[in-house]
Design brief:
Layout (H helix, E strand, L loop, with lengths): L3 E5 L4 E5 L2 E3 L4 E3 L4 E4 L3 E7 L1 H16 L8 H28 L3 H6 L11 H18 L1 E9 L2 E8 L11 E4 L3 H14 L10 H18 L8 E5 L5 E2 L3 H15 L5 H13 L4 H11 L3 H8 L5
Antiparallel strand pairs: 1-2, 1-9, 2-10, 3-4, 5-6, 6-7, 7-8, 10-11
Helix pairs in contact: 1-2, 2-4, 5-6, 6-7, 6-8, 7-8, 7-9, 8-9
Length: about 300
């Protein structure tokens, strides 16, 4: 369970994600959900962490050994889809063979390849149960973000249906996407139509973090410390460290709750994310700028206010 939020600011863009993953009995705040492909495309995946990593590594390796000098984001999108669908069918084939001794193609045709005999109803029903149990593991959504014709674009891929380029400036995936989408959709719709292809970078970053905070506060399976990746118009990648991301998230939470002013919040997020600002300095400034530091401190530590 996850939230990954991505936004195009026009000629640059960014992604923000949580770090929580879970099993039936445990949760882990240690999942790296934002990665880079060839230092030119931001990759974010929602689904089973191990399967996402497998698809990512296969894609990154395929891009690295490609004969093309530099693949476009559309080519990487097509390659990622191909690898995802092949990997998904491979997992299904393995599960059917391990459990029932039949292949995926035999399940689909209902005929055993070697003998030509029809599969009996019991085997067909068992095969469907195996597929249902596996579907949760192989179900995955992926966001790819990068520059195309000097514009930051977003591609969405889903294991259940073909994806393509996202038409709006923002996209969210994962169990926290509903709550995040409320924040981002409200923000984007408040921008005049003719200005949506040139969103203010700092404001966009604040809204991405706010959307991630909103999902973390409400949605099951979303939490831990956020991670942030920014791509400039010249493909420079900026990845703030964990402490910078945590403080940026806390500052946005304080701003959202009306305890920190816009000027400080926007300025601090800009410096922390884009200019490698020292979190110790801005942590102290946050305390001094806050309208009621004791209240915000309690909120950030989980007290009810």
């Amino acid at each position: 369970m996850t939230v990954i939020n991505m936004m195009s600011f026009g000629d640059s863009g960014a992604a923000v994600a949580d770090e929580q993953s879970s099993t039936q009995i445990r949760k882990y705040n240690a999942s790296q959900k934002l990665r880079l492909i060839a230092d030119s495309v931001i990759f974010g995946g929602s689904g089973a962490s191990d399967f996402i990593k497998e698809v990512y590594e296969m894609t990154a390796e395929s891009v690295a050994v490609s004969k093309e000098k530099e693949l476009t984001i559309r080519q990487i999108n097509d390659l990622t889809k191909k690898i995802l669908y092949q990997s998904k069918n491979s997992k299904k084939n393995e599960a059917l063979y391990q459990n029932l001794g039949i292949s995926l193609s035999e399940m689909q045709t209902g005929v055993l390849n070697e003998t030509g005999k029809q599969l009996d109803d019991q085997t067909k029903n068992s095969a469907r149960m195996v597929m249902q149990q596996l579907e949760e593991y192989v179900n995955m959504s992926i966001l790819l973000g990068g520059l195309e014709n000097e514009r930051f674009v977003i591609y969405r891929i889903n294991s259940g249906f073909p994806g393509d380029k996202v038409s709006k400036p923002n996209q969210s995936i994962g169990s926290g996407s509903d709550e995040s989408d409320k924040v981002l959709s409200n923000y984007v719709s408040s921008i005049p139509r003719e200005e949506r292809d040139k969103i203010n970078v700092t404001e966009g970053l604040v809204k991405l973090i706010e959307a991630t905070n909103a999902a973390s506060n409400l949605n099951v399976g979303v939490g831990g410390n956020p991670s942030i990746v920014y791509m400039s118009k010249d493909k420079k990648i900026i990845t703030p460290n964990e402490n910078q991301c945590i403080l940026a998230s806390e500052i946005v939470e304080g701003y959202t709750r009306g305890l920190l002013g816009k000027e400080f919040a926007y300025g601090a997020v800009h410096e922390l994310v884009l200019n490698d600002g020292k979190f110790e300095n801005y942590e102290e400034e946050m305390k001094q700028s806050c309208k009621d530091w004791k209240k915000l401190d309690r909120i950030l530590r989980g007290y009810k206010e």
